[in-house]
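Let us practice reading a record.
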Amino acid sequence: MSRPTHRRQAGRSPDLPRTPDGLEPVYGVHAVRALFERGQPPRVLWIQQGHAEQRLEALLQQAHAAGCELKRVPRETLDVISGQASHQGVIGFSEPLIAENETALWWRFDQWQQSQPPLFLILDGVTDPHNFGACLRSADAAGVDGVIVAKDKSAPLNATVRKVACGAAESVPVFQVTNLARCMEKLKQAGVWITGTAGEADALVFDADFTVPCALVMGAEGKGMRRLTREACDGLVKLPMQGGVSSLNVSVATGICLFEAVRQRGRASST
């Protein structure tokens, strides 16, 4: 008996559609919806075929209205593009996010000072994209003017950050600086009070004055702030820990500290 000329390779995946050149995937219903809400619709939108189209009808209508290129694809395709993350049946492709530089920070600084005392969030060594995205989401909710990170040893503004941030990565300015400690010194010279967080601090975060032009510094989970960063702070504060754990996830701690600033600033504006 003659052998077949062609054999089907076991486990071979079907050919996947080519992703749009030069665009970055943004996956998840909330993250993609935020792009439309902020007037930055994706250029291309991939929707899962089948019943998911009914569930995502509102996004489909927004995509048609915005003139997005629309493509219906199998779920397996979306699984491959998003990796282990949950895409919820939709992936948008947008221009990559690019952090601004220190020159842009000082150009914007003058504008912020004219409206109200600026509030900054400085992240020192936060390399996990999930934590970075969650910090950006809290920063947006708290009305932070800008997030400052070091050019090295910081999480990139990638698809995971954008998904976790749920639109905040597009709305909160992120500034990458070459030397974080030197940037902090320049901020202090410009009248910004810098408060760092450290578990061994004597003062509580509720004792800090966030009604003035200020910056909150959060260190990497586990290691905390680097030595030069710590030395550039005007003061250190901590959260009161009542239970058995010694610290909180950096994104959770960031949210608590930022909303103490929101509380103080709201009280100051009402008096």
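A brief commentary: Residues 250-269 form the longest helix (20 residues).
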